[in-house]
Design brief:
Helix content: 25-40%
Order of helices and strands: HEEHEEEHEEEHEHEEE
Shape: elongated
Strand order of the largest sheet: 3-4-5-8-7-6-12-11-10
Length: about 250
């Protein structure tokens, strides 16, 4: 091989770059393909890039699946049903009645309202309730059966109840609407939040003692346990007193 052929062999690829595979003939019948190795190298690099892209896509997909699963678990946990907590509000409760009459229980949102949210006439006599309160503990339970016509109505809208006082059945309780006499009595008591006493009759009759209205007014904690259970608990302003008074409204299954 001459010096010219040797120089041509080594310098020609540098002077004339080839983009496509080109076959070059040399003296003596030798041939070579320029650019083939470059193409193979490019193909190999592309394969490596494709593999890396595929791996990245798989990793991203796995992260998305994990994130989605975690998100689903979070929402599933959030959707767990939590038992309803009893709601508690403060109301004004007034127990009143004539000396020789029956006891009434009136519930108001505030002392200025002459339209009570609940007004019940209890079958227990006023003198008997005073005697029960002497023991320091009074629990009145008003029960009504779950009849089809009363199942969907509000508990405070039930017209008639079976009454129990300290475990003894004492007749019935009836829901009433406030008449003019009741509204006048509430009007006279609107300046008072807590207290007890006697309202004079004002009728001018000879038996004034029998017409006097005895009352006890205080704050009550109104607890709504469910659609079938409500209660009113006396908040005693005297911390040293052992007096407890609770009234329960219950819708029973039988």
């Amino acid at each position: 091989m001459t010096k010219i052929d040797s120089l041509r062999r080594f310098l020609l690829p540098c002077i004339t770059p080839q983009t496509n595979p080109t076959t070059v003939s040399f003296p003596g019948g030798a041939t070579t393909s320029i650019g083939a190795s470059k193409k193979r190298l490019s193909t190999s690099l592309r394969d490596d890039i494709d593999v890396q892209d595929s791996a990245s896509s798989s990793a991203s997909s796995s992260e998305a699946v994990v994130t989605s699963a975690a998100s689903d678990d979070y929402y599933n946990l959030s959707a767990v049903t939590v038992p309803q907590r009893p709601s508690k509000t403060m109301v004004i409760g007034t127990i009143f009645g004539r000396r020789k009459g029956h006891v009434w229980f009136c519930v108001q949102h505030d002392r200025l309202s002459v339209k009570p949210i609940l007004l019940l006439e209890l079958s227990i006599a006023t003198s008997q309730l005073v005697q029960e309160m002497g023991s320091g503990l009074v629990r009145v339970a008003l029960e009504c059966p779950t009849r089809p016509e009363l199942k969907s109505c509000l508990l405070r809208s039930v017209p008639v109840w079976t009454m129990f006082c300290n475990g003894r059945k004492l007749g019935f309780a009836v829901r009433r609407s406030a008449n003019e006499e009741t509204r006048m009595m509430l009007k006279r008591l609107e300046s008072m939040t807590v207290g007890a006493g006697v309202l004079p009759s004002g009728s001018g009759s000879g038996d004034s003692d029998a017409d006097e209205v005895m009352y006890m007014r205080a704050n009550y904690e109104h607890v709504v346990g469910s659609s079938d259970s409500e209660s009113f608990h006396l908040i005693n302003p005297d911390a040293n007193s052992a007096q407890e008074l609770s009234i329960f409204l219950l819708r029973t299954s039988s």
